Amino acid sequence: LTAHSYFQGQVDSGSCQMSWSRPRFVLQTEFDKGWTRFADKYQLHLYREGGFDVHDEPYRIPVLFVPGNAGSHKQVRSISSAAAAAFVELAGKDPEVVERGQIGFDFFTVGLNEEFTALHGYSILEQADFINDAIRFILSRYAETRAKHQVASADTEFALPTSVIVVGHSMGGVVARTAFTLANHIVGSVQAIFTLSTPHNNPTASLEYYVDKVYMGVNSFWRHGFHNGTLDNVSLVSIAGGNRDGMINSDYAYVGDLAPARNALSVLSSGINDVWLSVDHQSILWCGQMAIKFARMLTMIMDARRPEQILPLDERMQLMRRELYSGLEE
Hints:
One of its GO terms (cellular component) is endoplasmic reticulum membrane. The protein is an alpha/beta fold. The protein contains 8 helices and 8 strands. The radius of gyration is 19 Å and the shape is globular.
């Protein structure tokens, strides 16, 4: 099938029962105590965009959104809505996108009780533990649904996902990196992390000793992980809001000393083509220019033909630099 007929077929086949409400957050009730010890404390939802998404089961490319300090799972809405629109736009222009493995995204999002992770080190660890369990659950769902919704032509075969793209806002980016250091992390289950206004290098406020201790341990792990093979194929992209962000010093968002240039990219929103704006701490999630640019970039790096569901590291880093850098960095 071409991309256009794929999308049209998905809409037509489910239009009789389809909910056109936007947004919808589908609680993953099967993600219970059998999967995680934090089932009574945190929740996992699947975002669905009315008018675009037909099915309440995942079958496309998995993405997990992690909110920040006192954040809500609903903050995923602008990015995920823009991603749905970006895929439909791409499919309308290029009928062969599905054959290249570009099939759209399943955005999952976690409800973390709006905890103050910036002030409590143990909350960082508990959320990171939950994130690892959530990723394991998400990947388990595709064995049945990916085959059920196989829509490409006979010449294209989609692989079962072995990794999830992670997007973290603020302290959510720290939680995402912390997840790599825990015993329940599945090596290779995350190949790409995108962080928005995340204080990677230092806590925003050193009010508790254990926050500093978690930061020291996590950053040490990442600085050494690219030398011992643990993080070789992981890309880490950090986008900061600049001087309008009154909560996070954008210098803290720099990841060049945590990962080698082959794997890392740091950029201010004011230096991104088609954005050119400094944005405050919350609006980096819903600023129209930012959401559209970010969604289109995600669409470009997807490849459902590969188990990782994204392009190889060097190829995707080259593409992301082209999309995010102004061209004056050299």
